Amino acid sequence: MRIVFVHPNYHSGGAEIAGSWPPAWVAYLCGALKKAGYTDYHFIDAMTDYVSHEQLAEKFKQLQPDVVATTAITPSIYEAEETLKIAMEVVPNALRVLGGIHATFMFRQVIEEAPQVDVIVRGEGEEVLVNLLRAYEAGNFAETRHQVKGLAFQEGDEIIATPAAPTIKDVDSIEPDWGILNWKNYIYTPLGVRVAIPNMARGCPFTCSFCSQWKFWRDYRVRDPKKVVDEIEKLVNEHQVGFFILADEEPTINRKKFIEFCEEMIARGLPDKVKWGINTRVTDIKRDKELLKFYRKAGLVHISLGTEAAAQLKLDVFNKETTVAENKEAIRLLREADIFTEAQFIVGLENETKETLEETFKMVWDWQPDLANWAMYTPWPFTPLFQEMRDQVEVFDYSKYNFVTPIMKPKALTRGELLDGVMNNYRRFYMRKALFHYPWRGTGFRRRYLLGCLKAFLKAGVGRTFYDLGKAGYWGPQSKDKVDFHFDETRKIGNAQMADWEASADRAAKAAERREALREQGKARAAERTAAKADAAPIFAAAAAGGCGGHADGSDCGCGGNKQQQVDEFLVPMACGGGKEQMDEFAMPMACGGGKQQMEEDQLVRPAE
């Protein structure tokens, strides 16, 4: 069976300014296929190679695949759908498969608008894809597909979603096939070296309202640090990788394993061959302040901090457990450890004004990170924050959901004014850095790295790919009232997706009612038990003083327990109006309106909840 993977040809002028990034997803999927015995697989990186639709059709004709598979984040969904449309026309007998985060949560809309999609892989793809291929290979796929967990497809007039597949528990069994990539194409511009994006952990224990990674991966799982370093060593020795970024949402969450990872990097002498970067939280930097120089010794040179917003009010909106003061302190600590810092800001919410944009600039200049990015708030349609703000969203052209296009329109600004304000911040920050900081701060690697970052920004600016400025027609403040973001206003939320959201919202409302009823019931029982405690006070006091063989100082008594144990046993039932075992049973339903299994499935099928 021949499988052809395609990375969609989508560009937005965001992260691309730092270089060409290798699509790690295909390496992980191909590794799973190889282990399962499927070795006839091919990869077309239409994005990096700028493969046109006509060229893609020719490649399909040449390869004659049995299966065509592609993936999509939200902004690349239309290009992914077009990829499968071309496959339908050129190799009509091939099974057409779509995966990725957007299709996982928006499968109803995707299936409704793109009949060329035969089947969607929902969630973590390695095991689901292998099971899908086995079912397809067995024949009678119309029947066997129902037995594969983690799929979505159309059957007649009905959209079917099979039960969510379990997550991969043994993450150490994951072995990517990095050889599928043409490594000479993936260069990190600041250093001019090959770049990789390996994975140490999957998932995230935090639930930031604007993010969806925690919903996609569900469980937080960490690989054996030695196995991760094995993988990095192969990337260095076999593919000449000189820089990597850990793909984890926050690699420092598991402090013990992150330290083990750094120790292993040092023990193998890898910091002399490869440098690396991570994304992490401000709180982890403060926690590990005594270890930062050790991290730098392990080759960690670049940390991107999710400071998110300068105004504390915005931090609260995003459910970030940080403060403005902590952001500044974290950047100072990293600077002292000689680790490059990149501060990330989210702008463009409804309360954004010229004053708040100016506030972010003043604050970032006060903090003095090495790099700063202002990302437009992008309301991923499957996140909690989107559900709360849905009535304010006017643009449903997902190709513009790319962090550089102002999807949301602030009340006090036009979209053009918002873009101009952000560009004004960029101009001032990097002009000052270029003139007074980068050429004169430090020597050797530090100076080379900073000038390389400046080169990346200048290259994207001159080519007008930065922030999609060329496409929008932005040439400076004089053009802010004339910019055109070319929104496709015909794009709307699909009927099936809207119906699903409304049903989910209704279930969520009923779950909230159940939780409120349980709370009221708990209060009533607590009141009853408080009254019972008051009635029993004389007896309780006597027992505590030794009435059952115990002692007034709390030492062991004749009944096998001490004073503290007696108090604990008396008070635990008061927490929810029932015994401890009953409380444990209620804990999960009260959190999401259903049991643990229901929660896991709903995270993939019912994002609105």
TrEMBL record:
* Taxonomic source organism: Cereibacter ovatus
Taxonomically, the superkingdom here is: Bacteria
InterPro entries from the UniProt entry: BchE-like, Cobalamin-bd, Elp3/MiaA/NifB-like_rSAM, Methyltransferase_Class_B, rSAM, rSAM_horseshoe, rSAM_sf
Q: Which GO terms describe its cellular component?
A: cytosol
Q: What does the record give under GO molecular function?
A: 4 iron, 4 sulfur cluster binding; catalytic activity; cobalamin binding; metal ion binding
**What's the name of the protein?**
Anaerobic Mg-protoporphyrin IX monomethyl ester oxidative cyclase
Q: Which cofactor does it need?
A: [4Fe-4S] cluster
Claim: Chaperone is one of the keywords in the record = no
